[in-house]
């Protein structure tokens, strides 16, 4: 009888979970585990928490939802907090598990964690298997090796669209054979060293974590409102629930998979026809893949000041006061300040806002771009390591942008995207 652990991380779902299905297929009994890694809640580089209250609350909700769904299959979720090497080895010994199945990681810090866990499991006679990816396409199906992926997105997109097919989604398991598992006990935010969150009535959307909420969001954006039809036209707006998909938080924690979103997108097109909105959403899913593959290719370079170009921007000595003014929406530029207040009070900001505040920090305030990326890592509900650091390097001019010195004219941007000043009034009044 083979007993295995399925270690859930940023794949908090049952539908289209290749790691879970593989563990079930190759085991007699499966023990689902989620660990609140203590390292994810510490203060890290540049003086910011790795995980802030907004994302932590979303994760707590998603883990609770996962436990509910697992118990409907006859299984459940063991929830632990602390050092994952110690916690997983302890659970492996307790249940005589000989294997742990976990989602494949691509970012350096996460890869190092898996290496430490693999080493710690040797004493428990347990092996770690990395299975499953968070991308639309399998790495092995790409028309080029990771080392030769183009550093310009358009060149990547053209070849992938021509040569690659998105794999089918994996069915949701209906029965999971597990030993009797204790009730899941989730930590409070205070136990993670965080303050409680407050919902701001001005927020574009009130995010709630979990696979169920993610599936509801797909239904709302596609079928209830048909907002997907107008997505290309509305994606640069700043206010409201349906100007954009708001799938990002669910994708970041794996409450939804990119392939599941793509599958539903294709089903929508079969019923209602393809349009510019559906095409553009696919385009955005490709960007998510691209930044993930860029992390595979460039590794730690994406965290260096010079990025993948090895040409660090020249900055004056770091000015903490100016950085804090940017964080607190006190720069004096009302468009930047409004966006930063939304992020501070809700954990979310539009894509248009993110580009503008990042450009302002890098090119107007001349602050090292990595401080901005680290603050976003703390603050964003939808933080994803590849997308966050890839996008910041792009705006800073050290990433995948083929143009040199991309600069946003903030006043023109405000006039174009907040012509009546309604967004600024909303967040600065």
TrEMBL record:
Q: From its record, what is one biological process in GO terms?
A: photoreactive repair
> Per its record, how is this protein called by name?
Cryptochrome DASH
Which InterPro entries does its entry note?
Cry_DASH, Crypto/Photolyase_FAD-like_sf, Crypto/Photolyase_N_sf, Cryptochr/Photolyase_FAD-bd, Cryptochrome/DNA_photolyase_1, DNA_photolyase_N, Rossmann-like_a/b/a_fold
Q: Which GO MF term does the entry hold, naming one?
A: FAD binding
**Family per record:** Belongs to the DNA photolyase class-1 family.
Domain Photolyase/cryptochrome alpha/beta residues, every copy: 2-136
SUPFAM superfamilies attached to this UniProt entry: Cryptochrome/photolyase FAD-binding domain (SSF48173), Cryptochrome/photolyase, N-terminal domain (SSF52425)
The source's superkingdom equals: Bacteria
- Signal peptide start and end residues: none
Q: Which UniProt keywords apply?
A: Chromophore, FAD, Flavoprotein
Positions the record marks as coiled coil are none
Q: Which cofactor does it need?
A: FAD; (6R)-5,10-methylene-5,6,7,8-tetrahydrofolate
**Residues annotated as binding FAD:** 231, 244-248, 382-384
Q: State how the cofactor is bound.
A: Binds 1 FAD per subunit. Binds 1 5,10-methenyltetrahydrofolate (MTHF) per subunit.
The protein's job, in short, is: May have a photoreceptor function.
């Amino acid at each position: 009888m083979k007993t295995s652990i399925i270690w859930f991380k940023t794949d908090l779902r049952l539908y289209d979970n290749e790691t879970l299905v593989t563990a079930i297929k190759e085991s007699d009994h499966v023990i689902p585990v989620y660990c609140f890694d203590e390292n994810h809640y510490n203060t890290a580089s540049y003086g910011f928490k790795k995980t802030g209250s907004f994302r932590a609350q979303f994760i707590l909700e998603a883990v609770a939802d996962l436990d509910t769904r697992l118990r409907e299959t006859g299984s459940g979720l063991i929830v632990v907090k602390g050092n994952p090497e110690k916690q997983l080895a302890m659970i492996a010994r307790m249940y005589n598990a000989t294997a742990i199945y976990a989602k494949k990681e691509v970012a350096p810090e996460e890869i190092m964690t898996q290496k430490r866990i693999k080493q710690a499991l040797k004493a428990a006679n347990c092996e770690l298997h990395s299975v499953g990816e968070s991308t639309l396409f399998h790495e092995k199906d790409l028309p080029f090796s990771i080392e030769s992926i183009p550093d310009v997105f358009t060149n990547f997109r053209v070849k992938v669209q021509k040569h690659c097919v998105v794999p089918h989604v994996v069915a949701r398991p209906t029965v999971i054979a597990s030993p009797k598992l204790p009730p899941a006990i989730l930590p409070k935010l205070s136990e993670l060293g965080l303050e409680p969150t407050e919902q701001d009535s001005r927020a574009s959307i009130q995010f709630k974590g979990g696979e169920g909420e993610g599936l509801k969001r797909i239904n709302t954006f596609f079928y209830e409102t048909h907002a997907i039809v107008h997505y290309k036209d509305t994606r640069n707006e700043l206010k409201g629930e349906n100007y954009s998909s708001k799938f990002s938080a669910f994708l970041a924690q794996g409450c939804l998979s990119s392939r599941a979103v793509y599958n539903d997108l294709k089903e929508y097109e079969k019923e209602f026809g393809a349009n510019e909105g559906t095409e553009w959403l696919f385009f955005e899913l490709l960007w998510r893949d691209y930044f993930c593959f860029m992390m595979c290719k460039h590794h730690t370079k994406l965290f260096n000041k010079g990025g993948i170009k090895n040409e660090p921007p020249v900055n004056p000595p770091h000015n903490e006061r100016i950085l804090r003014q940017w964080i607190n929406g006190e720069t004096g530029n009302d468009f930047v300040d409004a966006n930063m207040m939304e992020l501070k009070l809700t954990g979310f900001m539009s894509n248009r806002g993110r580009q503008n505040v990042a450009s302002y920090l890098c090119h107007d305030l001349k602050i090292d771009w990595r401080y901005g990326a680290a603050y976003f890592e703390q603050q964003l509900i939808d933080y994803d390591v590849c997308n966050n650091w890839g996008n910041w390097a792009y705006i800073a001019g050290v990433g995948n942008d083929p143009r040199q010195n991309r600069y946003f004219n903030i006043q023109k941007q405000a006039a174009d995207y907040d012509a009546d000043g309604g967004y600024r009034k909303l967040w600065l009044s």
